[in-house]
TrEMBL record:
<dbReference type="InterPro" id="IPR035968">
    <property type="entry name" value="ATP_synth_F1_ATPase_gsu"/>
</dbReference>
<dbReference type="GO" id="GO:0005743">
    <property type="term" value="C:mitochondrial inner membrane"/>
</dbReference>
<keyword id="KW-0813">Transport</keyword>
<keyword id="KW-0496">Mitochondrion</keyword>
<dbReference type="GO" id="GO:0046961">
    <property type="term" value="F:proton-transporting ATPase activity, rotational mechanism"/>
</dbReference>
<dbReference type="Pfam" id="PF00231">
    <property type="entry name" value="ATP-synt"/>
</dbReference>
<keyword id="KW-0066">ATP synthesis</keyword>
<keyword id="KW-0406">Ion transport</keyword>
<keyword id="KW-0139">CF(1)</keyword>
<dbReference type="InterPro" id="IPR000131">
    <property type="entry name" value="ATP_synth_F1_gsu"/>
</dbReference>
<protein>
    <recommendedName>
        <fullName>ATP synthase subunit gamma</fullName>
    </recommendedName>
</protein>
<keyword id="KW-0375">Hydrogen ion transport</keyword>
<dbReference type="InterPro" id="IPR023632">
    <property type="entry name" value="ATP_synth_F1_gsu_CS"/>
</dbReference>
<comment type="similarity">
    <text>Belongs to the ATPase gamma chain family.</text>
</comment>
<dbReference type="GO" id="GO:0046933">
    <property type="term" value="F:proton-transporting ATP synthase activity, rotational mechanism"/>
</dbReference>
<comment type="subunit">
    <text>F-type ATPases have 2 components, CF(1) - the catalytic core - and CF(0) - the membrane proton channel. CF(1) and CF(0) have multiple subunits.</text>
</comment>
<dbReference type="GO" id="GO:0045259">
    <property type="term" value="C:proton-transporting ATP synthase complex"/>
</dbReference>
Amino acid sequence: MSRSKAPANTYATLREIESRLKSIKNIEKITNTMKIVASTKLSRAQRAMFDSRAYGETSDEIFKKAETQPASEGNKLIIVSSSDKGLCGGIHSQISKAVRARLALEPEADLVILGDKAKIQLARTYASNIVLSFNQVGKEIPTFAEAQTVADQIFKLGKKYDSIEIFYNKFKSGISFEPTSVPAFTEESLKSSPNFSAYDIEEDVAEDLTEFALANAIYWALAEGHACEQSARRSAMDNASKNAGDMIGRYSILYNRTRQAVITNELVDIITGASSLQ
């Protein structure tokens, strides 16, 4: 009785292994394809990132020469640059961790979040701080028009902020990034700069300059974050493909061993049956 049940169980196990092996091979094809797509998008994202740095660094040069400093008191705003997409490692959780660390020091600060991933994570503990959120921003290559739209919506909130800080992932290399923050100076901070008198700037121009500088900083953060996201996704898909390859190797060995055991059991049954007839 036991000998008749063993082959059925073995065959079922063999079919399960074959099905699992086929599934893993399909997953490997998908992750390899996603890696290739991410690599292609990364090169485009890096070009956009270098362009945005030219905008951001040129804008920052004015504030550096004016020795502008952010206000230490008053209403504070934190802008978080993230995205809506996953499958890119811990890139979103790291930026959320950095923001939570800052909110522990500034619990009354308002939050403007770009991207659903960071919003979901930060809303668990700081939902009341979120005053504005965006999705589908920087879905492809970020543009200055998108950054300008975000900046306009922030000014339309009608609340006067004394200091603004932007958190984003800074691109360091093809395999590494770092959560970073940069200040976005307000009109009052610019006017109170020690070297502001060196610039012949009218009142309305100073306001326009700070608004333009905020849009520049947001564009810079979006472009840097997008490049980091594509880089992280390429690394994640590369690791997933390697893991799938390792699993395919292990399951192939298991499949061959199980198949050999099935064949051996069938030969034993045939030989035993033939011997009993003699």
